Amino acid sequence: MARHKYACALRWSDMDAFGHVNNVVFLRYLEEARVDLMWRLAAEAEGDAFSGGSVVARHEIDYRKPLVHRHEPVLVETWVTKIGAASLTLSYEVKDEETVYVRASTVVVPYDLDAGRPRRLTPVEERFLTAYLEEAPAKGRRKRDDEPEEAVAA
């Protein structure tokens, strides 16, 4: 299936005292990619998909390599790894051609803003999400055997 690809510009303010992208900023990068997928692309493809709102129920993030400031954007790939009746799980890789900086996942719950409570996915939303459905990466498995893990976020 397809992965959504989002080119995310690095801002000078994204850097921390150690000279790399701060751990919290990566959540913003994921948010930008998620919003682009679920609001812009879904609206273009399916009209009213996700127009009622959604909330984040959970984030899980693995920091694999430090990302330092540069003028070229970083790529955020997003895909769907689970579609439930009233939630979905997105997986991400923040990367460039050679390096995966972050692997992450987010559980998103469709939300009825007027009623102030979670709601079920609509058939239109399920159809849209299915186009991006792919297996989640195995926990603890590295993309390349020669790619060491290291602590990178402060």
From TrEMBL:
Record GO terms (molecular function): fatty acyl-CoA hydrolase activity
Coiled-coil regions listed: none
Superkingdom classification of source: Bacteria
InterPro entries referenced in this protein's UniProt entry, alphabetically: 4-hydroxybenzoyl-CoA_TE (IPR050563), HotDog_dom_sf (IPR029069)
UniProt protein name: Acyl-CoA thioesterase
Species of provenance: Streptomyces buecherae
Lineage: Bacteria, Bacillati, Actinomycetota, Actinomycetes, Kitasatosporales
